[in-house]
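hey so u asked for the seq, here:
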Amino acid sequence: MTNTANTNEQKEMTLLEFFEYTERAMDLAFERRNTNKEIFTNIMYQARKFGKEDVTYELMQKKAKERGEPELWEMPQSFEKPVQMMKFNPDSCLPDLLRDYLKAVAEYVQVDIEMCVLPLLSVLSRCVQGKFNVCFPNTFHEEPLNLYTLTVASPGERKSGVFSTLTAPLFEYQKKENERLAPLIAEYRAKRKSLANAFESLTKGKNADVDKAQEIALELENLKPVNRLTLNITDCTPESLTAELADNNELMGILDDECGIFDNIAGLYSNGTANIDIFLKAYDGSPLVVTRRSKENIYLEHPVITLGLMAQPEPFAKAMNKPEFAGRGLIHRFLFAFPESKQGSRKQQSPLIPQELREQYGSLIENLLNAGTVENPQILRFNTNASNLLGDYFYSIECRLKEGGNLVYMAEWANKLYAKCCRIAGILHLCTHNPTDLIDEDTVMKSAGIAMWAENQAHKAFSGTAFEGKTTKNAKRVLKKLKDNRQEVYTRSDISRDNRTIKSNELDKVLELLDNMKYIKITETKTAGRPKVTIKVNPLIFDK
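ran it, structure tokens below
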């Protein structure tokens, strides 16, 4: 008999049925000592539903004493939220070409297919960001198509193999484009130097000519820069990133299989002072002015960045626990993935990616990079059926953000989920349709499938210790000492003495939490003075 099963079975139980059930369950509990903690936990769960917790508890303990049994204890609740992971389904979530290529990459590198999903979306996002915006249904609100993604896997899980395979066409395009731009860059630099020399000559000596110098200055000002194309950077500071954005139409990708950028953001080169403004602004394409002492200020009107990172568990944990990242919402902008390990089941040889499939994927990346313009971003819109489907998805999220819903504890992340779904829909649409076409319901179904999978992954990201409050962290510290001491009865002073760094008012919150979670039981005995507080420790914790 399990807690979950009993909850469902007794959902419509009447009060009379509850007491009859309790009598039968108590007899069963004492007959099956090895499962009595589960049975007692279920009984108390039902008692609380009927508001009969105290009377049921006293009755059960009385029965136990009459039978010569030890005091009954409920199973303590877990601090961790169990997450039932769902698998990514490429057949229902991706267009044919992306589905086939993703499967082929996963087989070739010998990784779980979920290792490839977010890196693929990041590459696609980098190709179309800044040139297309998606307009939310029934509104005038638009968002760019960039994504922030983070795939977490242990060392040796072939993250680099996935990364290099998926990004190869991106860098091949960059190489060819810079070869094409080389003579244009040389011409631009030569002309700029010539104009600069002419300006200097016209402002000095006998040849000084103010009017002519002003004409040259204006020509210099209007000379359109021609720079090398940089689609992606990795080892950069937030300050140098803004300069790269200025030189690349305010668009940049940070696609990296090492995740070193988190250290830079956290202040590796700025005495530990985190600087995340550019990453917050560039997620939505918001304006940013960067003031520099030694050089001209940088004015960014609509900066857009795609962050596509792969990280080991330790850097991921550090990022999740960085107060600046969580407090200002940076980490909540990310999609997460936790692929299963293939370690121990890999083969010496794996099937190569078919050449035709490689070429089709490469052509798609090239076409996306060539599509659209930064100067005149095109707006993508949804057809009626797609809008209705997105409406249903929006309200399903809102419903679960209400008190008691499963998204409440990670509400800041979930509040951005609908927008992420719309962005993904825009990206998938451009992979299979003309930009002028309306986004259809099939594309929305695929994007919603990805969003629901991403939600499941996010539950894992936020269910651990990353966003624990002070009370929970202190409660875990107190609990560890209780387990280590293996003492069953304490006074409040005993626990306070063992945990001197926890302030008195905070300790009261800690003890209340541990009592609610059934790790301890607090009882008060009336005395002539202040009530005597006794704290009994649940002996079941010593079995863990």
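The mean pLDDT is 86. Residues 153 and 312 are 5 Å apart (CA to CA).
lmk if thats what u needed
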